[in-house]
Amino acid sequence: MTVDTASETDVPEVSVIIACHNATKTLPLQLEALSRQEGAPAFEVILSDNRSEDALLSLVDAWRPRLKLRYVWSGQVPGAAYARNVGMSIARADKWLFCDADDAVARDWISRGAAVLDLAPVFSGGAVRATDAELSRPLEEVWAQLDAGFQAGSALVAEAPANWPIIMGGNFGIRRHAALAVGGFDAAMERGVEDNDLACRLEQAGVFVSAGGTRIRYRKRTGAVSILRESFTSGKWHMALVERHGLAERSPQLHGRRWMVAPLRVVGAALKNAAKGCNGDWPAVFSRAGAAAGLWSGWLTYRVGRGLPEPLIGAGLGSREPELSESAAVLVVSPHLDDALFSCSELIRRTRPDVWTVFAGEPEPSMTTTWDRTCGFPDSHALMAQRRREDCDAFEGVGAEVRHLDMLDGVYTTTSRRAVDLERLADDVREWLAAHRSQAPVLVLPACAGVTVPPGAMDRVSRLLAVLNRHEGGGTTPSGSGEAEHVAQGDADLPPKVSEPSMVNRAADDLRRMKHMLYQHRRARAQRSGLAVNGDHVAVRDTVLDVVSHADQTVRILLAEDLPYLWSQPGDEEVARIADQHALHAVPHEFHVDRDWKRSRLMHYTSQLDVMDPAHRRFDRPDSIPPVERCWELVAQPAEENRREC
């Protein structure tokens, strides 16, 4: 089943892009307005799903007969800017129109927008505010209020730009070349100013925003909390916009520095409203209060405090690829028999690297675990044999050099076996680096996306016992811990078992069991929010990073964001933590993915797909596969003066 109802040869004149987040209650009105457009040229509608938790895909299926709908998942970075960039990355038309999921466009919105883009490269339209109640009425009534006072057939004029660069994100249009010339939206800017940031960068490039005459019904916020939150965010990020582009003198909100005494003026307005009783305009007071607080917060944050956030211009467009020379030797270190193609298929498709799967071995004798039964197999031998066959089939014809290492998955290993396996992995990586010293070696490792399992208090106790045990001089023997998912979660700091247990070692045995039980409890709680970080991924990444940190040669490191874990929690925070831990800087990159090719490869992993996607909603349709694969390159920290210039 596919959501993409337009064929590759059916290129529309207009692409309508809508960023969606939990929008199934309001989106049907917008889709109805788009499905009933008058005089519109051929167009497609792209719904860019930014971490929705509602039934957006079901809504897409329901509307397929009435619209050329295309669905794309864009949840790797929260916010409308990233969602719009991802939508732009798959748009087929040359003219792009943007609207929001909770508004309603006019009956001629597409035809007028397309006509304006024949006259100007970018335009911004206008809006008539509406309450939830007004937008719950039939579409004809919603349109009637838009039509009131509008002269049908009036001339379309590309007007002169305004004094302050403005784009209304829920009602604007832009030509492809103009958007890509400035890199699209900056995903570091929050909703409310990401559109004006685009206007500023367009102006700096000599492209001015015209007034296009397109109209929408705009859903205004109601309720004190919503008004305060929206106005606070707008005020704070307005200050960031001013700081980034040096627009303090042009800002209508900052001119004359009256904003500094705005809190006092808000108090005065509140007292006046209190005197009026029920007739007071409290929404206006809440809006002014939020804006005043937001401006002060922005000034303290971006002018006095930590400074501006690092730009993410173009994030989601798939245009920020790492530079990899054809002669570079690339090694993808994949923890399991599927991780490589799930997480970095495009890099593999283009570079044909060496691909090592670390935990491709099986225990002797075979065992039966919950994981084997969940995957539908009687024991570890049957499951691992099938998974190796699937991996070989998935890589057939790709051109990569595939190697399966005989190390044990976390569900099969023991503490002592894991230590031996990781040391063997380290030796293999050292040998590979030495063999490819002259080929600018590149190592691709898992970023370890997913929900983080918080550490427990027992970790501190275990470290203390490890110190005590070292004083007693205990030796090492296999721990025999069975299903040892906890092996990769820090049990190496526990005292190893010895042939003649001391009192400390007996306490360590009890502690090990208790620690594992508590870890499983914390992991279960964490996984209520989604897939937890996989301990095997962490073990592989940290082992190889340790090898590189002691290498006597230059090695490039790319951390690839893990699918499907990124659906639960993207890898940004974990990558930032690792970069800080190693005193490095993480440079973000993206590959634009051939999703049909990727899906054709992933379909070979049948033993895993039913477990990861039992409802067959994520991988059976290329549209729900992220259109970009993200990775981060770990590089030396830039000089202090360079950071200030950026």
Automatic annotation (TrEMBL):
<dbReference type="InterPro" id="IPR003737">
    <property type="entry name" value="GlcNAc_PI_deacetylase-related"/>
</dbReference>
<dbReference type="InterPro" id="IPR050834">
    <property type="entry name" value="Glycosyltransf_2"/>
</dbReference>
<protein>
    <recommendedName>
        <fullName>Glycosyltransferase 2-like domain-containing protein</fullName>
    </recommendedName>
</protein>
<feature type="domain" description="Glycosyltransferase 2-like">
    <location>
        <begin position="15"/>
        <end position="178"/>
    </location>
</feature>
<dbReference type="Pfam" id="PF00535">
    <property type="entry name" value="Glycos_transf_2"/>
</dbReference>
<dbReference type="Pfam" id="PF02585">
    <property type="entry name" value="PIG-L"/>
</dbReference>
<feature type="region of interest" description="Disordered">
    <location>
        <begin position="471"/>
        <end position="501"/>
    </location>
</feature>
<dbReference type="GO" id="GO:0016137">
    <property type="term" value="P:glycoside metabolic process"/>
</dbReference>
<dbReference type="InterPro" id="IPR001173">
    <property type="entry name" value="Glyco_trans_2-like"/>
</dbReference>
<dbReference type="InterPro" id="IPR024078">
    <property type="entry name" value="LmbE-like_dom_sf"/>
</dbReference>
<dbReference type="InterPro" id="IPR029044">
    <property type="entry name" value="Nucleotide-diphossugar_trans"/>
</dbReference>
<keyword id="KW-0862">Zinc</keyword>
